[in-house]
Amino acid sequence: MNQRKLLLLGLLRTENRHGYEINDFIEKNLSACIEIKRSTAYSTLDALCASGHVAMHVEQAGNRPPRKVYSLTAEGGKLFDRLLRESLTKLDGTTASFETGLVYIDALSPEERVSLLSKRARAIDIAISALEAIPSHGDGSGVDISVSHRRRMLKAEHEWLSSHIERWSRA
Amino acid sequence: MNQRKLLLLGLLRTENRHGYEINDFIEKNLSACIEIKRSTAYSTLDALCASGHVAMHVEQAGNRPPRKVYSLTAEGGKLFDRLLRESLTKLDGTTASFETGLVYIDALSPEERVSLLSKRARAIDIAISALEAIPSHGDGSGVDISVSHRRRMLKAEHEWLSSHIERWSRA
DNA sequence: TTTTCCATGTAACTCGTTACATGATTTC
DNA sequence: GAAATCATGTAACGAGTTACATGGAAAA
C-alpha cells in the first residue's frame, strides 16, 4: 500500500531530487525490480509534500523548465524508517490471481492444464532471463538483494509448475 | 484485477447460490487460500449481473429474509473460461512490498536486518502451519492444489530468508 | 433476553492507472 | 523542420476496503 511512498522517500534519503529525475532514475535503475507510473510518482510526491514528509522548492537552471526539488524532512525520515521495517516484516496477505485460478483448475482437461502451465513456465523463464540480464548494482546493494529474492521466488514457482506439468502429463 | 470475478463465477459454475451463501462458503472453505470482503462480493455480483454474466432472481423461504439467487449465464461461462486461462498463464507484474523494502535494506545495521528478517521468517512459519492445518478438500481438488502452491512459495521465501539471515549474522 | 445468525446493502475513501494536456528546448 | 527530451501535471476511472446501516429470526 505504502510501498510507493517507501520507494520515493528512500530515493530522497541520500539526495534531493526533482520529480522528473526521480522517475528517470527509477526507470533506468530500478525498473527491473520495481514499478511505479510517472503520474503516480508525481502525485505521491504531492501527497508526501502535503503531509509534511517531504519539502519542496522550485529551481530553475538557465531557461529550462522549472523543477520541483524535493527533500526529506525529519518526519519523512521517520516515515521511511517505519515503512521500511513494516515492509520487511509484514507478509502481504494478497492472493495471487494464479492461486485463484488454481482453485478451478479441475475445470480443465489434463492436456490443457499442461499447456497453460507450460506457457506460464515459459513466461517465468523469460522473467528470470530478464532479471539475470540486469547488471549488478554493486556489492550487496539493495537492488541486487531484491532481485535475488525475486529470482528465487520465480525459480520456486517454476519448480512447482514443472512438478505439476509432469504429473498431469502422465494422466 | 478480475480475480474476484473469476472466484465468484467459478462458485456459480456448479450451483446457483445467493450472496450470503457465497460469502459463507468462501469464509468456511476458501479463506485459507483466497480473500474477498463480504461487501466486495455483493457489489461484484451486482456488477456481474449488470454486465449480463450472471442472472439473478429473488427467492423467499418461509418468512426468512429474501435471497438473491445468482446463476451463471452463457456469457458468464465464457468469461469464466477466459479469466481462468488468463489467471493461469499471466504473471502479475506487481512488486511485493517486501522487495521494495529490500532495496533499502542497506539503511539498516546487519543486526537489525537479522532481527527483522527473523521476524518475517517466524510469520512465514505461522502462515505455513495455518496452511498445513486446513483439511484436504479431497483428491486433487483445486483448493488443495492452490494451497500446495502457496506453501511452496512460502517455503522458498523462508529458505531465502534463512540464507540471508545467516549471511548477516556473520557480519 | 441477549446474542448470534441470516441477508442485504450504501457511501466514502484509498490507491493506483490510463489517457490526456502543455510547452519549451535540444538534438537529428 | 521534426523528433526526442525535459518537466509538469489533471480528470476520469477501476478495484477494492472500511465503516456504517438495517431488520427479522433462531439459539443460548
Quick structural summary:
The structure is a homodimer of 171-residue chains. The first copy, chain A, is mainly alpha-helical. Chain A is built from 7 helices and 3 strands; from the N terminus they run αβααββαααα.
β-strand number of chain A:
3
Oligomeric nature of the chains: homodimer
* H and E string of chain A: HEHHEEHHHH
Largest contact between chains: A-B, 62 and 62 residues
Average pLDDT, all residues of chain A: 95
How many whole angstroms does the radius of gyration of chain A measure?
21 Å
- Outline of chain A, from the CA principal axes? elongated
Structural class of chain A: mainly alpha
Query: Distance between termini of chain A?
Result: 42 Å
> What fraction, in percent, of the residue positions of chain A are helical?
55-70%
Largest sheet, strands/sense/barrel of chain A: 3 strands, antiparallel
Structure description:
The structure is a homodimer of 171-residue chains. With 171 residues, chain A is mainly alpha-helical. Chain A is built from seven helices and three strands. In chain A, strands 1-3-2 form a three-stranded antiparallel beta sheet. In chain A, a hairpin with a 7-residue loop joins strand 2 and strand 3 (67-72). In chain A, helix 2 (19-30) crosses helix 3 (38-50). The termini of chain A are far apart. The mean pLDDT of chain A is 95. The interface between A and B is large, with 62 and 62 residues. Chain A binds a DNA duplex (28 and 28 nucleotides) through residues 1-2, 4, 18-21, 23-24, 36-40, 42-44, 46, 63-68.
